[in-house]
Amino acid sequence: MNLDTLLEKNLNDCRTYILKGKVASYIPELEKVDCEKFGICLYTGKATHCAGDWNIPFTMQSIIKPIILLLALQDVGIENIRKLVGIEATGKPFDAFNYSDQALKSEHINPMVNAGAIALCTLIKGDTYSNKFNRILKFVQDLTGNSALGIDEKVYLSEQKTGNKNRALAYMLNAYGMIDEDVENLTDFYFRCCSIKATCKDLAHIAYILAKHENKGIVSAEDARYVNAIMMTSGMYDGSGEFALNVGIPAKSGVGGGIMAVVPNRFGIGVYSPALDNKGNSLAGRKLLECLSKQFNWSIF
Amino acid sequence: MNLDTLLEKNLNDCRTYILKGKVASYIPELEKVDCEKFGICLYTGKATHCAGDWNIPFTMQSIIKPIILLLALQDVGIENIRKLVGIEATGKPFDAFNYSDQALKSEHINPMVNAGAIALCTLIKGDTYSNKFNRILKFVQDLTGNSALGIDEKVYLSEQKTGNKNRALAYMLNAYGMIDEDVENLTDFYFRCCSIKATCKDLAHIAYILAKHENKGIVSAEDARYVNAIMMTSGMYDGSGEFALNVGIPAKSGVGGGIMAVVPNRFGIGVYSPALDNKGNSLAGRKLLECLSKQFNWSIF
Amino acid sequence: MNLDTLLEKNLNDCRTYILKGKVASYIPELEKVDCEKFGICLYTGKATHCAGDWNIPFTMQSIIKPIILLLALQDVGIENIRKLVGIEATGKPFDAFNYSDQALKSEHINPMVNAGAIALCTLIKGDTYSNKFNRILKFVQDLTGNSALGIDEKVYLSEQKTGNKNRALAYMLNAYGMIDEDVENLTDFYFRCCSIKATCKDLAHIAYILAKHENKGIVSAEDARYVNAIMMTSGMYDGSGEFALNVGIPAKSGVGGGIMAVVPNRFGIGVYSPALDNKGNSLAGRKLLECLSKQFNWSIF
Amino acid sequence: MNLDTLLEKNLNDCRTYILKGKVASYIPELEKVDCEKFGICLYTGKATHCAGDWNIPFTMQSIIKPIILLLALQDVGIENIRKLVGIEATGKPFDAFNYSDQALKSEHINPMVNAGAIALCTLIKGDTYSNKFNRILKFVQDLTGNSALGIDEKVYLSEQKTGNKNRALAYMLNAYGMIDEDVENLTDFYFRCCSIKATCKDLAHIAYILAKHENKGIVSAEDARYVNAIMMTSGMYDGSGEFALNVGIPAKSGVGGGIMAVVPNRFGIGVYSPALDNKGNSLAGRKLLECLSKQFNWSIF
User: Fold this and answer.
1) Chain D residues whose beta carbon lies within 8 Å of the beta carbon of residue C92
2) pTM across the whole model
3) Which long-range contacts (CB under 8 A, 24 or more apart) does B284-287 make?
4) Chain D: nearest CA to A153, how far in angstroms?
5) What is this model's ipTM?
């Protein structure tokens, strides 16, 4: 069997997990997706291997977090980023108030959880949040090689309407002096970033750049390693340890149902299945990666 | 010595504590107060006994919390209040995110901490927040018998400018479905309530009503007991246990430097000294009440 | 109707709450009690008013906590006690690890929660824990005027067998340098204290001494106030706020089903009903006190 | 320059970090070590490359944790382990009470923190703790190929004397029904495991087995991956994220000053320098691995 056939086979074998997951409901518009959609794309630089609904666009949601980190690394450098956010896993869900004993410290948040990602948004260069957004959209277009990428307006408006927890996090960051921003502008920017639509193929292309450290004009090897390392320890929220054990590669999930996974030095992968596990990760997507990793020895451990 | 002379003497004895406290700095406008001001007023229904700067107005700040609770009790009744907020001491500072294991429950907040007081503001009747504010201002005027009471515009604007933690709390309440309100309108109302100016004499008059349960047209005995009980267990923030031990009467402090204290069945007291202890309570004010309570056996224990 | 008849009537009215409670199960021997037993005793110094099973002995459990505090106050004084334990409500259950951000501080525990009571045991004078126990047993006998008081051996052995959480708390106190004790000896002492048997009448006699501050040979007025104040804010665990609101008097409950309640300056009360609410307080006992407090205006607020 | 010379050079360059660290003091005997000792050993299966004090034995301390996990995996299998402990990073220090909202759940602890490692000790096969210990000591001897390995009696006795936090954790595990063990026997076993002495060379040999998955008679590839994955996300305590970013390989540190590091598919490393950073990891050891990883591209990201 060739790789495309094997991807198809594994995808079909994992379909059963779709029913055990649950589509995200806290953003009402996300609930409307077709939870039967299931796709994968693997990009090796030379070839593209796909199966299922690899060409259906979905909102990136938290998969934008490593991209925000990458652009911030380019814009202001590691030192400035580390002044604002930490690097350690929080041991808590993605939307937690990582706050204890009446203190909020940069070391308690990281770029892979909401509070950290929102904080990083303030470091993206741009006179206005409109300019900042144009820059990050352009960056995603460059990373994917897909200049047609844009946002899902309905999801964006839905997030904006229901994003009170993110507003609470942003005001908390302000209150503790970590940022000094207009919360409406800041969260609007963040909601727009989360609403950028991509396909499995788009994610595979980004992941490939992170895997190969080749296209240094876009992403330096050092920055790619930063992102891969933090995806390894925190990319799947408080399911990162389980993922490290069962799949063994850096990855980032989004509540839209996507997973972007990096097989270092080898290739990039995008997966999509919108029904989530109780940690907020695509359930069937995670299981598919698990099966493939075991068959093809993708684990880096 | 008569009571006025004794108040004067004790007040002078406690002046030394002023230097050990610190004026609240998180609302910049509050820092500008004259921290040497120190006053007390005791109202027995028949007589008014005063000493020091009893006639200097200061912003009520958290002393408005029991008033918000009283008006909410009248407006919607105990059951509706208990659906929204709890009654137990939180064991944490007044501005804490009383939040644990990713849950925010009504039983984790109470009307004497910021999150609970902000939640209660939504229960005050009124078509608009402007009407709600007129009602609560009128209520404070009725309780004090002082129809000239109004707000300190500078402090109000300063709170509004720096009140990000309260906005974060309000968005958190929204995010957890406990309230469903426009946060800017809600916090603006809360900031205005906190900025109402009163003197020691005004506070003594409110406390008298809570102590005597007589003027039932204004406050019912049942509502007064509710407020006295919760002030006993939570009125001095996470210094309430210490205050119960050393003074032994229900009281509510504000970061403006005021303390409103109730000697049940006997009289009401207002104290003012803006330098605070590390829990956010007026330090010299607390010490003055301690000295007087011991001399005159005010403790209800 | 005279008071005894009224007590009887209220007790019968409150019997219905027995079924809504649940006998403590974490100490297996406690589960064997007859949950239908329900009694009350009120002691005014001149007269004793009783109803129901006021003469059935039960283990004091946490009701020993204020007694440990009283004896420690006499043995080492307030300053030494305050070096070891705090005074504020913890906002958490009685058996909590009151521990945050990797720190355990005296201010985070108090004499009414297990960690604080266990810490206080180390302050009781006595060469050996056997001597310490003889002293506290004698003290309870003096407070109750009942020289026949002793421990329930079966409950004591059951507690000793299952008291791992208390051992964990004691080791934690040792690990944080708050105490320096042999944990087996210390917890054995604590388990024996908790297993002292008393009746409603015994509790009413202790409470009377706390209420009247008269028998200063046994308890000084100052120490009685300390205990009453801390029972008010923390005596009913994380149900203390509710109790302050609905009953309005200092009280201490035990998971054995007893409640000792103090009506300051007036009289002492003992109640017994072993089925507990979800906070660990006697449910029917609490409701009975609520009914009586409302009828007879016992609330100190 | 050959590799041995390069190791020597890097080791000397990193000596400056020794002064910035601090030898562990909570186990008194550990404080007596010579903090100038600094060594490294790298084992490729074919060759051994060493520098500095690579042949000085030190106590393994937490480096025994992955060994306990390996033996438990062999003894009872993954399913039984996962019933008892989780896999996620806790976001907290190694000795934390990973406890929240009055609950202790297996998912809140993992084999790389004290509570989890102590829990796993109960799964090691053996009629007595003496037999269990003989089995784990033999296992370490097999993994290192060093049959002379034994424990440091003084450190063991010192740990036993001061290990109250571990006793507290063990009683907590008992209290929450996660284990059902005699705490003294259990912690004694754990203290003995932590006191096993090894050199950098010994650690390099263990790490080699984890890296190459070759000697399947000793460790299966599946078990090695489990251990490597969890060392990646949690092996350096709450400094694991930083280590993933800067070094990029699975590793486990001990407060004795050792670090065992695995370069998957390539080789194993042992490092020793007893002065620790504020997370409890060898500071100079960590920096040395960082320098070498950057020069030789060891990062798996």
Assistant:
1) 102
2) 0.92
3) B284/B14, B284/B15, B284/B17, B284/B18, B284/B21, B284/B38, B285/B38, B285/B253, B285/B257, B285/B258, B285/B259, B286/B236, B286/B239, B286/B243, B286/B246, B286/B247, B286/B253, B286/B259, B287/B14, B287/B17
4) 35
5) 0.94
